[in-house]
Protein 1
Amino acid sequence: MSETTKVPVRPSAAHPVWRALRSNPGISIGGGLLLLMLLAAFFAPLPYDPVTPDPANVLQAPSGSHVFGTDANGFDVFSRVVAAGRSDLVLALLGTLVSLVVGLLIGLPLSTKSRYSEGFMRALDAFQSFPLIVLSVTIVSLTGNAIQNIIYAIVIINGPRFIRLIRGEALAIRDGRFIEAAVATGARPRRIVFRHIMPNVVDVCLVQCSLTAANAVIVIAALNFLGIGVSPPDPTWGSMVQVGAQGISTGQWWVAIWPGVAIFLAIASLNVLAGGIQRRVEGS
Amino acid sequence: MSDVATKAEVSGPGLGTPRRGERRRRPILRYALRRIVIVPISLFVLGSVSFVLVLFIPGDPAVTILGDFATPEQVALVNQQLGLDKPLWDRYLSFWGNLLRGDLGTSFFTNEPVLHDIARFLPNTLELVVLALLVAVGLGLVIGVVGAYFARRWPDRVMTGLTSALQSVPDFFLALVGIYLFFFVLGWAPAPIGRLPIEAGAPEHSFLIFGSLFSGDWTTLGSALSHAALPVLSLGLVYSSYFAKTARGSMGTALTTPQVEFARACGLRERTVVRYAFLASRTTVITYVAILFGSLLGGASIVERVFNWRGMGQWALDGVLKVDVPIIQGFVVVAGLMTLTLFLVLDLVVLALDPRVSYE
C-alpha cells in the first residue's frame, strides 16, 4: 500500500535540472548573470532614452537622478551601459556561433590523418602565427566600417581555435571501438563523422563556446574602443570607455568606469560559466 | 598558436615506415631540420597574406584610402604606387622583388620609408612587451605555484579567484583605471603622454630603458621607468592570468607525481621539492612566453595608444585606421617574421630542455 502511494511523488522533470544548477554554482551563477544582462538589455525599463542627449546635463557626477552620471554629450551613462548589451552581447554570441559552425565544418572533415589535412594544419599554424587582433582590425577597417564585419573579426581569431580543438578531439574519438564497429557495419565516412563523432565533440565545444564568447566581448570592446564598428549614437561598451578615456585624467571617472565594469561582468560571467561546464563535462 | 599541436602534427603518418632504423638514430636532428625547412614555407604564406590584404579593399582603393575629396592627381599617384594599373601577377612578382630586397615601401601619408618607421618604433614596443612579460611571468608563476601548493585550500581559492578576475579585464580598461587612481587621485604616476616628460626632448637611445641602464644615465632611467610603470603593469597584470593558469595546472599535476612523494620521503626541504616539481612545467611556461610575445607585438597597440607610447603597435594601428597599405603590409611582414623566428627558437629550446619530448 505504502509502495503505491509513493509513485505520484516522483520528482518532476524540472527537478534534476534544478539540482544540477545547485550542485554546479559555475553554471548557475555565470549563466544566470549572463541571462540577466541579456534580459536587462532588451526588456529593462530605462530611466532615460540611451540615444537622446541632454545638453543641459553634461558630465554630471553620479547622483540620484543619474545613478551612473552623464557623459560629455549629456547621455545618461546607466541607460547606455544597460542598453549596450543589445549590440555587445548579441554580437559576441553570434560571432561565437559562426566560429563554432566554421570549426565543425572544417575541423570534422579534417579529422583524418591524411597528407592533405596535415598540410592544412600547417597553413593554419602560419595563419595563427601573427597578431590576429591586428589582422582582424585590418580586415574590418579595409572591408568597411559595418557592424557585421566585427563578426568576421571574431571568427578570424576564434575559428582556428575551434578547428584545432574539434579536429584534435575527433582524431582521438576515431580510435574508439564504436567507430570501428560503425566502420565494420559499413557506415559511410560522412555518416561516421556526423552521426558518431559530432555528438561526442559537443562537450568540449560547449566549454570552448563560452571561452570564445568571453574573448569576443574583449575583441568587440577593443574594436569599438578604436571606433571600428560603431554607429553613433548607438551605445556600445567599448565606445563608451573610449568617450570616457578623454576625461579620465581630469577626474570624470564614471563615464569610462561603468561601461568597463559591464565588460568585466560579462567576461567574468562567461568565464565562470565555462568553468562550470568544464566541471560538468569532466564529472560525467 | 600552440606549438604543442605543432609537434604532435609534425610526427604525421605517411612518412614511410621502412626507414625506421635511420629515423631512430638521429630523431632530434631530423626534427630540427624539418622544423627549419618549414620556415621558408611559412615566410611565403606570410608574404602572400600581406599582399592579399590589399585586395580586400572594396571599390576603388585609391578613393577608399584618400577619401572622397581627393584630387584626380592624388588618386593617380596612389594607383601608381599600388601598381593597380598593372596585372595582378606582375604586382605580386614586384611585391616579392621589393620584399626580398628589404624594401617595404613608403607611407602614403608621411612619405617615410616603412623600414625607417619600424626601426624607430619597434624598440619602444620591445621594451614594453619584455617588461610586461617579466611582470606577467613573475606574478603569474607566484599565483599559480601558491595555488597548486595549497591545492583545494583557501589560498588556492583566493588565487583562482584572482586569476579569473585578471582574465576578465580588458588591458586598456585596466590602464584607464590605473591612470585615474595613480595619476589623478594619488598623483604617483606621471601624465600618460609618452615615454618621457615633454621637456626632456628627443631621447638619446632608441632603447630608452635598456640603453640608459647600460650607459648609467640614472635620471633618464628613473623618468623612463616611472612613465613605463602603468602601461607595463596593466599589460603584465592582465597577461599574468595566462601564466597563473598554466602554472597552476602543470604544478598541480607535478606535485602529485611519485617523484615528489619520493623527494619528500627522502627528507628534502619543501623549497627544494617545489623547485623540482617546477622544473617539469618550465617548458609550458616558455611556450607561453613565446606565444604571448607574438600576440603582444600587436596586442599591446591599444595600451600603447592610451599612453601615447609611440610603439610599433600604435604605429600600425594608426596605419590600419588610415588604410595606409605599405604600413599594414610592413607590420604584418615584420611582426610575422619575428613571431616565426621566435617559434622556431622556442621549439628548439623546448627540444633541448625537455628530454621527455620525442619527435618520432
Note: Residues 79 and 244 of chain A are 15 Å apart (CA to CA).
Protein 2
Amino acid sequence: MRTWYNNLDYVSLALWLALVTIGLVAIYSTTHGPAAEFLLESVRRNFDRQLVWGVLCLVMFGVALLVPVRFVQQVAPVAYVGSILLLVAALLFGREINGARSWIPIGGVNFQVSELAKFGAVLGVAHVISRRRPGSADLRLLLTVVGLLVLPAVLIVLQNDTGTALVFLALVPVMLFWAGVQLDLLMLMLAPAVTGYLAIVYEPAAILFAIVFTGFMYFRTRDRRLTVVAGLFSGGTVFALWIALTKVLQPYQVARILSFTNPEAAEYRSGVGFHLVQSLAAIGSGGFFGKGFMQGTQTQGRYVPEQSTDFVFSVIGEEFGFVGSMVVLLLFAGLLVRLVLLGSQMKHPFGVIVAAGAVGIYLIHLTVNIGMATALLPVIGIPLPFISYGGSALLAHSAILATVVALHMRRDDFSIYAY
Amino acid sequence: MIQDRFAEDPGDRARVFGVVVLVIVGILALRLVQLQILDASEYTGESRSNAVRELRITPARGTITDRNGRLIVDNEPAYTVLIAPRYFDESRAGLLARLLEIPDSVVTRKLAEARRWSPYRPSPAFRSVPFDAISRLLEHRDRLPGVTYEWEQKRRYVAPFRAAHVLGYVREIPPSMLERRQEEGYRAGDLIGLAGVERGYESQLRGRMGSAFRLVNVHGQEVEAFKRGAEDIPPISGRDIMLTIDYETQALAESLFVGKRGAAVAIDPQTGEILALVSKPDFDPDVMSRPISRELWNWFQSSADKPQFNRATQSLLSPGSTWKPFMALMALQEGAISPTSTVTCNGGHPIGRGAFLKCMHVHGTISVHSAIQQSCNTFFFEMMTRVDVETFSRYAHTFGFGEKAPLEGLEQDTGLIPDSSYFLKRNPRGWNVGVPISLGVGQGDMGVTPLQLARYVGAIGNGRWIHAPHVVKALRDPDSGQMVRPDLPEPVAMPFDYRNVAIVKNAMKAVMEEGTGRSLQIPGIPSGGKTGTAQNPRGKDDSVFIMFAPYDNPRIALGVIVENAGFGATAAGPIASLMAEKYLTGTLTPESRARMARVMQVTSTGVAVFTEVEE
C-alpha cells in the first residue's frame, strides 16, 4: 500500500534546504561578523528575519504538499490575476524602497509584489499552455503567452525595477519553447540578446555573429523572408544598440550597461563599477579555500554594496572560496537538472509547464546574478534564489518549487488520463 | 507553421533544457576558476589594499646624552586633535572651541575642511594642542563624538646649550628625499635627521617602524585587528646615543662665544673624544625641529654669518703661528736642525731681488725652543727652505690635516695641505721657492679647520698617539641596556722621536709660562699652548689659539678661533684656557671668573641677529 508521501522527491527538498542554509550562513556572516557593532540595528536583525522566513517557507512547503493538485490548477488564473492586481496596487499605493515602488505593507511586513508575481506568472502561463489541444500551438497561443509575461514586466518597469522586469521577458522564450514553438523562431528571438551582448563586449564579434547567424538561418530554412528577418534581428541589434547607447539612454544607464566590460575604468570606478570592482576583489581574493567564515575582509568591511541581497555570492566567494562557490553552483545544477527530470515524469502538461517555468526562473536568476557578481554581465539587480536576503523572493521561489514538488508527488492523481 | 515536430516530444525538450542548464553552469564555473584560482593572487592584493590599513607604530627616537649620561635631547609628545565630521555633533562646535581655547569660526572652518577631505575618516584638524587642552577634551569625550586625538613625537632639547652643529636637527622628511628613501620605510610626515648626529646616526636613532594591521570598513572605520594581529610587526626602539661631549664644558664654551664669530673644539688627547664643539653663530635645534616661518628659513639661508655652516669643521683658516710647533717637529725629525743649533734672525727672510718676508722682531741667533716660545718667523721660513713640500705634506697628513675625521653626519672640509703636484698645477712653468716658504709660518696656500688644530695639538700633548676625533662615545640599546661603541680607526703612532716631541712640548710650556700665553695659564695646572694670529681677508685678523693641559698626560686639547678679534691671546686664548679649567677642575676660580667677564666683552664685528617680523 503506497502512502501519499511515497512519491515525495526528497532530493529536491534536500537541495532546497541546503541552498537556504547556505544563504543563512552567508547572511549571518554579514550581520554577526566582527564588524557587526558598526551596523544599524535594523540591518543586524536581517539574519533573524531571514531565519523566520526560512521556517515559514518550510511550513508552506508542508501545506503545499497537502493541497489537492486540481485546486492548484484551478486557482492558477486567480493567482495570475491576483499578481497583476497587486502590481497595480503597488504602483498606486505601494511603498518605495531602494527606488522601486514595488512594496506593499501587510501586517507590518513589506512584501515585494514583483517577486510574488513570478509565482503568479508561471502558474498563469502554465494554465494557458496546458489548456490548448496537443499539437495545436498557434500564433494566438504564442501571443497570449507573450502577453501574459509582458504585462507584469511593463508594470514592474513602471515601478522602476527594470532588473526584475527583465526576468519576465527572459521567461518568454523559455515558456514558448515548452509551448512547442518552432526552434527557428526561438533562435530568432534569442538572436538580438546574443548579438547585443557580443556588441557590448566586443563589437567585431557581434558583427561576425550576425553574418554567421543570418547565413545559418538561410541554409537551414532556405526561406528568404526568414533570412531577412534574421539579418535584421541580429545585424539590426548592433545598430539599435549603438543608437540607444549614444543617443537615447542617459549616461548613468549607459554606464550601468557598459561598466562590466571594464569596471576598473576611471569613469565607472566611483559609480556602478565600484560594485563590480569590489565584488571581483571579494570573489577573487577568496582563492581556493576562501578566507574562512566571518573572516572575509571585503565582507566584514562591507565593501561590496548589497552584499546580503543581490551580491550575496561575493560573500560566499570570499569566505568559502572556489570550493564554496562550486558547492553552490553544483547544488543549483543538481536542483535544476532534478526539476527537469521531475517535469519529464509528470503526466499532465500543467505540471510539466510549471516545472519548466521553475527551471526557467531559477536559471535566469542564477545566470544573471552570478554573471553580474563575476562581471560577466551588466549589473542587473536580481537576487540569487534561496540564498539572497529577502523574504518575498525566498517565499516566491520556494512557493514555485513547492508547487512543482507537490504536483510531482501527486502526478498519478493528476494526469490527462485521470479524468 | 509555428509548431515544431521536434519540440512536440517532451523528452527531447527536457534533454535540451538539461544541456542548457549544464552549459550555463559550466561557463560560470570556468569564470570562477579564472577568478579564484588563476587570478586569485591579484585580487587578494586588491582586497587587502582595500580593507587592510597599516597603522605604523613609531618607536621612540633614541635620546642623546653627554659623555656622563646627562640628558641633552629626548622626546615629548605633540598632540593633534582629529575630527571625523560624519560623527561630530555640529551643535557642539562651540564646546570644542571653548575647550581648545580657540574662536568658534576656526572650528567651523576646520570642520568644513575635514568634511571636504572625507566625511568619515578622522582628519587632523588642530596641531600642537597643549596637554591640558587634551585633558579637558577627555573629560568631555562623551559629548564630543567623532573627536579623537593622536600624538606624535617631537624632539625636546633640555640642555642649557645648543651644540647645534653636533646634534643637528630633525624635520619632516622633504619630498625630494622621501622619493629616494621610501624603500627604507619613510612615509610623508615622518621625521628624519637632517644634520649632525641626528643625520649621521639616523637609522640607529630611528629604530625600526612597527606595523599593526587593522581591518577597515568601506567608511574607513577600523573594525578589528586583521588576523588578530598575526601579521603585526612590533617596533624596535631607536638606540640612545651617548656623545663624547662634556655637558659643562660645552655650556661654558657656548656662553663664551656670545656675540662672536668663530669656533672651538676640545678633544681628549688620550682617546680622540670631542669634549666640546662650538661654532658660532649657530641655530637653535629646537627651532629648526619645528615648522618654521619662511622669513626665518630665508634668513638662515642668506645670512652673511651662515649659521648652518660648521666653522669648527668646515672653515678653512691659516693657522698662523700655531703652525710653528708642527714645523719644529718636522725639522727636528728630518734633521733640518738639531736641538742645539741656531738660526740667525735679522728681522726677516730674504726671498731674492730685495724682497723680504718679515719677522716681528730681530731675534738674533735663536734655537728651536726660543723660536717657538718667541714665535720667530725667520727661523721657520728657514726651516721651510730646508725641507721639501712633499715631506711637509706627508707629516701634515699624519696629523690629520687635509683629511676628514670619522664624524658621521657632520659636514667637514678636508682642508688644504699643498704638495708638489698642487704647486705644479697652479704654476705649470715651475714655481718660485718664495711661495712655499710662507707655509713655514702657517700662511699662504694652506687651510686647516679648528678641529684639525685641536687634534694636532692633542697629538703633541699625547706625544705618542694620534687619535681620530669622534663625537659618539657609545650607542645604547634602551631595551637590553647593551652598549656598543662605534667603530673607529686605529690610533696612528706619532712619526717623531720622543725626544723631539719633548723639545716642542717644552717650548709650548714656555709659551704659557714666559711667552705670549702668560696670561692664559690655568690656575695650578701646567699646560702647553701656542697663540696665533691669522690674516683674514674680511676685516680684522682672526685670533687663534691651541693648547693642551695638563702638561703631563694631557686630558684636554683645544683649538679655538675667534674671527676678526685680533691677537690670539685676547679672545681665543682665554676661551681655551677657561674651557680647559672648567673641564679639568669642574669649576672656575674667582680670577678666572673675572677673566671670563672680560672675554665676554670681546665681540666680533657685525654679528647678525635675526629679529622676528611681527605680523
Note: Chain B has 24 helices and 23 strands.
